[in-house]
């Protein structure tokens, strides 16, 4: 069956109702894969995981203005709707919801959801209000769809924790399912923003994961400050000297890891390659 393309809320509700009571003739389960389009292998892995967990897979494509800062790339965020729909369909997605900005934020819309503690560190320091935008739109998409499962990549690990926390605190009856970061053959984490990189810049970016893995090898034998300075030095040697953060934090609550308690440690990195901001994280 071919994918259904839906652009408004009423259409979404009737498509979901049809699928839920459709050929399976049972209360079929629904998994949602929220995206901003520019579908790549990372999103495809989310759709595959969605299919493993639920009978019906709904992907959403919405470039959410609320999560972009004034100087960020909202206007030039890559758009490729036709290719996106095809890729989602090929992976077995049943419905794609592509709402307009007015459908998500109708006239008079006056709500922001804030998950303050988890949002104040790492990417939240540089990207003020970014996570409020993410939390607000994701809450809307989960409630609009009534999905039983929502699938998110660990590439945006902080986002994953924030969404898990908001779903818990608002008692939204949806299970959040994480998926490992998808990497290309050189280890570079797949991201929509990779397409802004020239091939020379990709060669440089490939070092991010190499340097992180190198740091992981020694992490339990040396001080955290030594780990951080060797990462900085190795990134610098690879031509990456514009660093937003290199931090080691607890995977569950994003609190700082100390030398006395390195349990559940995770390494988080955000760097710039010229104007392109790339993030990555690995378990230590
Ligand atoms: O990860 C993304 O693409 C976005 O932040 C999300 C979760 C679709 C919300 O706009």
Element order, helices and strands? EHEHEHEHHHHEHEHHEEE
CATH superfamily of the largest domain: HUPs
Poorly predicted runs are: none
What characteristic shape results from the CA principal axes? Answer: globular
Notes on the structure:
With 284 residues, the protein is of the alpha/beta class. The protein folds into two domains: 4-179, HUPs (Rossmann fold, 3-Layer(aba) Sandwich), CATH 3.40.50.620; 192-283, Pantoate-beta-alanine ligase, C-terminal domain (Pantoate--beta-alanine Ligase, Chain: A,domain 2, 2-Layer Sandwich). The protein is built from ten helices and nine strands. It has helices spanning 9-20, 41-53, 81-90, 101-104, 116-119, 123-126, 130-145, 157-169, 199-218, 224-237; strands at 4-6, 30-35, 56-61, 95-97, 149-153, 175-179, 242-250, 265-273, 276-283. It has a six-stranded parallel beta sheet, with helices on both faces. Helix 8 links the parallel strand 5 and strand 6 (175-179). The longest helix has 20 residues, at 199-218. The protein is globular. The protein starts with a strand and ends with a strand. The model has no long low-confidence stretch (mean pLDDT 96).
């Amino acid at each position: 069956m071919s994918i259904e393309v839906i652009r408004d809320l009423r259409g979404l509700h009737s498509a979901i109702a049809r699928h839920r009571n459709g050929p399976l003739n049972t209360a079929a389960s629904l998994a949602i894969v929220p995206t901003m389009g520019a579908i790549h292998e990372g999103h495809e892995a989310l759709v595959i995981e969605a299919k493993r967990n639920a009978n019906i897979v709904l992907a959403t494509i919405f470039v959410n203005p609320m999560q972009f800062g004034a100087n960020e790339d909202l206007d030039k965020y890559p758009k490729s709707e036709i290719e996106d729909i095809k890729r989602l369909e090929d992976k077995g997605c049943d419905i794609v919801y592509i709402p307009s900005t007015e459908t998500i934020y109708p006239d008079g819309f006056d709500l922001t959801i804030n998950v303050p503690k988890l949002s104040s560190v790492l990417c939240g320091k540089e990207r003020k209000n970014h996570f409020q935008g993410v939390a607000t739109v994701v809450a809307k998409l989960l409630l609009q769809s009534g999905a039983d499962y929502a699938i998110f990549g660990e590439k945006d690990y902080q986002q994953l924790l924030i969404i898990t926390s908001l779903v818990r605190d608002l008692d939204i009856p949806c299970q959040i399912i994480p998926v490992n970061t998808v990497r290309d053959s050189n280890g570079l984490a797949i991201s929509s923003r990779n397409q802004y990189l020239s091939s020379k810049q990709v060669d440089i970016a490939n070092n991010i994961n190499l340097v992180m893995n190198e740091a992981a090898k020694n992490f339990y034998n040396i001080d955290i400050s030594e780990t951080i300075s060797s990462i900085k030095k190795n990134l610098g040697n690879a031509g990456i000297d514009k660093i937003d953060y290199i931090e080691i934090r607890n995977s569950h609550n994003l609190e700082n890891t100390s030398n006395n308690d390195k349990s559940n440690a995770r390494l988080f990195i955000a760097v710039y390659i010229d104007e392109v901001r790339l993030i990555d994280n690995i378990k230590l």
